[in-house]
């Protein structure tokens, strides 16, 4: 079914709102950016904003959902390439390192958001937890393909290294942080592949 121009306009406005919010939330923090600024920068009316996002919280959840989908897409591409699980883990780590080295990198959008929304019942906090559980489950599944025993602990180690690299990457030399992270992942994957009694 072909959508009319009037039907497609709200979707374009939603995209502008989400793109604007994503840029400013990530660059400046969530609490520091008000709805009025997003409306002005996206060049939409207040009514248009509230038609697409009933509240600022719903916009924040949409922003994090978009970030989640992008990260899932990278991980799924690494797995779908048909490479061995250890190489898929390396590819995921390379994607993380590439993000750390990208211009304007300001850490993990999810860790940044949860720092601003510590209430575990808040929808923003819940969105972060869902994303992090998916990431941990994905890494655990890949490590279990390398060797099932110890996969849970190794996956938690991978996620902690990732979190540390994301925090360090916006504070110190991103090239050094990325190299250190990738070396850590390589060591983890190799160590995990060896049976404990080997």
From TrEMBL:
Q: Which InterPro entries match?
A: Homeodomain-like_sf, HTH_TetR, Tet_transcr_reg_TetR-rel_C_sf, TetR_C
Q: What range(s) does the HTH tetR-type domain occupy?
A: 11-71
Q: Residues annotated as DNA-binding region?
A: 34-53
Q: Which SUPFAM superfamilies match?
A: Homeodomain-like, Tetracyclin repressor-like, C-terminal domain
Q: Which GO terms describe its molecular function?
A: DNA binding
Q: In terms of domain of life, where is this protein from?
A: Bacteria
This protein's species is: Streptomyces smaragdinus
Stored Pfam families: TetR_C_13 (PF16925), TetR_N (PF00440)
Q: What is the protein named? A: HTH tetR-type domain-containing protein
Q: Which UniProt keywords apply?
A: DNA-binding, Transcription, Transcription regulation
What the entry lists under PROSITE patterns is as follows: HTH_TETR_2
């Amino acid at each position: 079914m072909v959508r009319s121009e009037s039907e497609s306009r709200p979707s374009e406005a939603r995209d502008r709102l989400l793109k604007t919010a994503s840029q400013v939330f990530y660059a400046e923090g969530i609490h520091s950016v008000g709805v009025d600024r997003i409306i002005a920068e996206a060049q939409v009316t207040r009514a248009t904003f509230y038609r697409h996002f009933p509240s600022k919280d719903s916009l924040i959840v949409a922003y994090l959902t978009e970030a989640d989908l992008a990260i899932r897409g990278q991980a799924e591409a690494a797995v779908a390439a048909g490479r061995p699980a250890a190489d898929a883990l390396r590819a995921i780590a390379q994607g993380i390192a590439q993000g750390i080295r990208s211009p304007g990198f300001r850490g993990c959008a999810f860790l940044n958001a949860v720092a601003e929304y510590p209430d575990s019942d808040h929808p923003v906090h819940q969105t972060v937890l869902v994303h992090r559980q998916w990431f941990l489950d994905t890494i655990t599944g890949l490590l279990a393909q390398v060797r099932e025993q110890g996969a849970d602990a190794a996956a938690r180690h991978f996620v902690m290294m990732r979190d540390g690299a994301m925090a360090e990457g916006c504070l110190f030399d991103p090239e050094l942080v990325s190299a250190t992270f990738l070396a850590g992942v390589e060591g983890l994957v190799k160590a995990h592949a060896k049976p404990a009694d080997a």
